[in-house]
From TrEMBL:
Keywords: Glycosyltransferase, Transferase. One of its GO terms (molecular function) is dolichyl-phosphate beta-D-mannosyltransferase activity. One of its GO terms (biological process) is glycolipid biosynthetic process. The gene is ppm1. Its EC number is 2.4.1.-. Residues 7-176 form the Glycosyltransferase 2-like domain. It is an enzyme of class 2 (transferase). CDD domains: DPM1_like (cd06442). One of its GO terms (cellular component) is membrane. The keyword Glycosyltransferase applies. Belongs to the glycosyltransferase 2 family. It comes from Paraconexibacter sp. AEG42_29. It comes from the Bacteria. This is Polyprenol monophosphomannose synthase.
Amino acid sequence: MPGLPWLILPTFNEAENIDAVVRAADAALASASPEGHRILVVDDDSPDGTGRLADGLAEELAAVSVLHRTVREGLGPAYLAGFTHALDHDAGYVLEMDADFSHDPADLGRLLDAVRSGCDLALGSRYVPGGSVVDWSRSRQFVSRGGSWYARRALGLGVQDLTGGYKCFRAEVLRAIDLPTVRSRGYAFQVELTYRAVRAGFRVCEVPIRFRDRQLGQSKMSAAIAVEAMFLVPRLRRRR
């Protein structure tokens, strides 16, 4: 059906989380969007069987489908593949969320409501009043806040949480920001998409969320991802 909200859920080795997180997201979106919704799991050939488990969910739950990718290119390309699939199937809204429960699926409806109420891009924000981070060490919080501060100052943006990955886009935003030219692969991808949306004149809102560390599975964060983000930000400004 055209105009429905689509949730893009990229996965790599999330066998411990995939069943519960998909079911929670499905229930949250069913409540927020009675007219219907879709959930697309984008699996990068997980060796732990995440893709196979997702296929089982797709057979059981009508809203769920799976996009299997055989090349592991990172978070950014996985999202781009999912976004393109959703837009090709007439999505009205496109949401993104981590598959490890660091983002509470119950907040999907709040992000969708923010866009339906006038925002073009709603960000689940840890760093606005009402937002919070739990289960992280002080050093990790410092790195996260510092990364957002650095990107905000370098790019001249007023967004407080530039590195977060819990978002809802009006479909027109993704169609307007030239997705095929996005080159970032790791968490810098989140900065780049928000920057492009702001530069294109779209209205960005931050919705406070409670972010928690994953309880099961392994984090995909690495030094290489952090370095990519550090060097990408000034390149984005030069491209402007």
